């Protein structure tokens, strides 16, 4: 190829590191400078159809992107040869040109790299594996190519040079057998002092037993010495190595100082970003590490929590109440230890000191709330909601049960930990907690106290604190382990989690754009009450937009509203219509969907109550909206028409809170349309199951020729009835 020099190290911030020690954690893979990508035959070929052009194009794109970031990329592939053999097998039958088959895959790669204006060079020499002098020349050539920002593609030319042992597989019908390149990729990575080897195959990674078997589990991190716990299955239909060969090669490379990830390069949903995701440290495939953490993995923590959570759910309500009361006692008894840990956190996180801070008064308040929850939650799990007599001696019940395993992600509010833990205990749910690192010391002591309380009934593992380097996005992918995600934090955190969640429902709201509409028949005293904005401006239930009926403009009510906002130092932004009424208006709002979270708000003018409703539906976030009026008919129409989680009349929006609603503690406020909506307390952490009790009934008993008939009679359920 034409050799051109490009400046290296452009933009990615990665620098060459001393070779000899592999990365200990996935998050460190972002530092990888020199990367080898090994493409298995199953990745770049399709059964009986030649090259997988779409996958190849995606891989080339990702390699080019990483190369342009200043990394040094190398590709090891048998794909061109695999396709050559695939074509060669047909040529034996159809007498086609062998030369045409040989060059087909190589030319496709050439065209794809040229489309990205990325120079590359293909090296095909099987002697590299056996001749030391050729190895030295190869390495020198590769170093020169990398120096010139050229992507080397290394490929053993098995289609031309016969292997040491004659192969008869060209006579086969469905099997395409090629030389295994796993050991070649590992050897190349170590000799070239690569930081990372990415081995792409047709499986998600390394499993503890053959993929497809009932109990097979994908291994997130594999450590040397874990080989005895693995049962290998059969190899891929294309390629000779199989997973056992990949593992041996990976461990050899790891020992040589190169980190390794084995991942799926064929899945249509992930192929487009699998390489870049791995380099970004995302949980993809199996990561080989020499550093084994002291504690369990997050997957193991989740399984431990689920197992203990089922025991927790089977306890008597009084026993769950005892655990909560014990936690309340520990919060006050161990307050010195808690406050000492909290002080250490605050010294390291000055900008967040208000949200992070705990005090004796706050701990006492938490303890009081927990005791109240212990009493009020005794009729939660196992409560009969409905009872039906389906037929004689066939009765059906719908009862409340825990959701399962909850993942709560919270930022810099350590008081959230005991609150959410108590709600999980009361509802019989297992709980996985991921707190912000700024509160690590406080969260650690609070979690220890929570487990101490749980241990009085042998369920300490039901609540787990994730203290490993798990990224939030990786946690959101554990759809087989986690049943519900509850984010507690900024709107950005919630939005990020909603985007990242893969098959797991998210309970919460990303924005709190709350409105207060002042009607033309509003009371002046109620209209000038600025509690909705000024009580706690950063809260999600604080007013962000004040809607004023146009008839109130240039009236004493309007003047007093403006004066009151100015007295409270609220910065006013004018909506488009409001600005049109003024000669000198405040700064015009950039967006009517803004959540200020501070002493700022937007004022906009509307023509009527219906106009206010339409505005709320267009620009609101379905959180909390308020009408201020003395006209009951207008108020009732507003309450009925506004489609938000909370709709109030002559009341502050700040009442949208689980404690103020009498729910005890809350896990958050939801704007979702299904399951829980509004402030979510204990009831929102429960679902239901159906229990049917019969005496050998069969469906055929109710056929036309059967002896039984459906009754479907509702059976009254006494208050406090349990199954």
UniProtKB/TrEMBL annotation:
PROSITE patterns, A to Z: GLUTAMATE_5_KINASE (PS00902), PROA (PS01223)
Annotated Gene Ontology cellular component terms: mitochondrion
Coiled coil: none
GO biological process, one term: L-proline biosynthetic process
EC number(s) reported in the record: 2.7.2.11, 1.2.1.41
Kinase in keyword set: yes
Keywords: Amino-acid biosynthesis, ATP-binding, Cytoplasm, Kinase, Multifunctional enzyme, NADP, Nucleotide-binding, Oxidoreductase, Proline biosynthesis, Transferase
Aldehyde dehydrogenase domain ranges (all copies): 297-576
A molecular function (GO) term: glutamate 5-kinase activity
Claim: Membrane is one of the keywords in the record: no
Family of the protein in this entry: In the C-terminal section; belongs to the gamma-glutamyl phosphate reductase family.
Protein name: Delta-1-pyrroline-5-carboxylate synthase
The species this protein was found in: Dicentrarchus labrax (European seabass)
Gene: LOC127350395
């Amino acid at each position: 190829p034409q050799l051109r020099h490009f400046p290296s190290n452009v933009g990615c911030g990665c620098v060459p590191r001393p070779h000899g020690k592999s990365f200990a954690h996935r998050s460190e893979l972002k530092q990888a400078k020199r990367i080898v990508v090994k493409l298995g035959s199953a990745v770049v070929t399709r059964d009986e159809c030649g090259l997988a052009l779409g996958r190849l194009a995606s891989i080339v794109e990702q390699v080019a992107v990483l190369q342009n970031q200043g990394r040094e990329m190398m590709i090891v592939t048998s794909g061109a040869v695999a396709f050559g053999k695939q074509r060669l097998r047909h040529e034996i039958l159809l007498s086609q040109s062998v030369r045409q088959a040989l060059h087909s895959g190589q030319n496709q790669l050439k065209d794809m790299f040229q489309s990205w204006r990325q120079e590359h060079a293909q090296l095909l020499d099987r002697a590299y594996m056996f001749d030391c002098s050729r190895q030295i020349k190869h390495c020198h050539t590769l170093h020169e190519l990398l120096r010139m920002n050229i992507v080397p593609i290394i490929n053993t030319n098995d289609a031309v040079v016969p292997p040491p042992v004659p192969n008869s597989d060209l006579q086969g019908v469905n099997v395409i057998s090629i030389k295994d390149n796993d050991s070649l990729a590992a050897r190349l990575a170590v000799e070239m002092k690569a930081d990372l080897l990415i081995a792409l195959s047709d499986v998600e990674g390394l499993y503890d037993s053959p993929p497809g078997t009932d109990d097979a589990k994908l291994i997130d991190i594999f450590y040397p010495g874990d080989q005895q716990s693995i049962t290998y299955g059969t190899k891929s239909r294309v390629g000779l190595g199989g997973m056992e060969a990949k593992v041996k090669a990976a461990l050899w490379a790891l020992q040589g100082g190169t980190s390794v990830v084995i991942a799926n390069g064929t899945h249509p949903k992930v192929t487009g970003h699998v390489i870049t995701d791995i380099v970004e440290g995302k949980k993809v495939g199996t990561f080989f590490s020499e550093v084994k953490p002291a504690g369990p993995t997050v997957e193991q923590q989740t399984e431990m929590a689920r197992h203990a959570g089922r025991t927790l759910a089977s306890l008597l309500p009084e026993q769950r109440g005892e655990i909560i009361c014990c936690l309340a006692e520990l919060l006050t008894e161990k307050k010195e230890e808690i406050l000492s840990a909290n002080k250490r956190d605050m010294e390291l996180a000055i900008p967040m000191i208000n949200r992070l801070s705990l005090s004796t008064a706050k701990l006492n308040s938490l303890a009081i709330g927990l005791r109240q929850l212990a009493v009020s939650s005794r009729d939660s799990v196992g409560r009969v909601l409905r009872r039906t007599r389906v037929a004689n001696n066939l009765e059906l019940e719908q009862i409340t049960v825990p959701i399962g395993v909850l993942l709560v992600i919270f930022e810099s509010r350590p008081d959230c930990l005991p609150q959410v833990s108590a709600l999980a205990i009361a509802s019989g749910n297992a709980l996985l907690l991921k707190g912000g690192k700024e509160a690590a010391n406080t969260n650690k002591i609070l979690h220890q106290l929570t487990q101490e309380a749980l241990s009085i009934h042998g369920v300490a593992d039901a609540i787990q604190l994730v203290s490993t380097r798990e990224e939030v996005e990786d946690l959101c992918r554990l759809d087989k382990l986690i049943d519900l995600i509850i984010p507690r934090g900024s709107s950005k955190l919630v939005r990020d989690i909603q985007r990242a969640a893969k098959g797991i429902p998210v309970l919460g709201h990303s924005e709190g754009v709350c409105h207060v509409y002042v009607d033309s028949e509003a009371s002046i005293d109620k209209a000038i009450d600025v509690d909705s904005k000024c009580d706690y401006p950063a809260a999600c239930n604080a007013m962000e937009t004040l809607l004023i009926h146009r008839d109130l403009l240039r009236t004493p009510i309007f003047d007093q509203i403006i004066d009151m906002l100015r007295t409270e130092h609220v910065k006013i932004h004018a909506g488009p219509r409001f600005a049109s009424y003024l000669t000198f208006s405040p700064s015009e709002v950039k967006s009517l969907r803004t959540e200020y979270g501070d002493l700022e708000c937007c004022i906009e003018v509307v023509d009527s109550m219906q106009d206010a409703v339409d505005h709320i539906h267009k620009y609101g976030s379905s959180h909390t909206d308020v009408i201020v009026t003395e006209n009951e008919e207008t108020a009732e129409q507003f309450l009925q028409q506004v489609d938000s989680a909370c709709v109030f009349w002559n009341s502050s929006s700040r009442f949208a809170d689980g404690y103020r609603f009498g729910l005890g503690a809350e896990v958050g406020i939801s704007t979702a349309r299904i399951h829980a909506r509004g402030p979510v307390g204990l009831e929102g952490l429960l679902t239901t199951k159906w229990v049917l009790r019969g005496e050998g009934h069969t469906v055929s008993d109710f056929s036309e020729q059967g002896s039984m008939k459906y009754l479907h009679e509702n059976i009254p359920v006494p208050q406090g009835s349990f199954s």
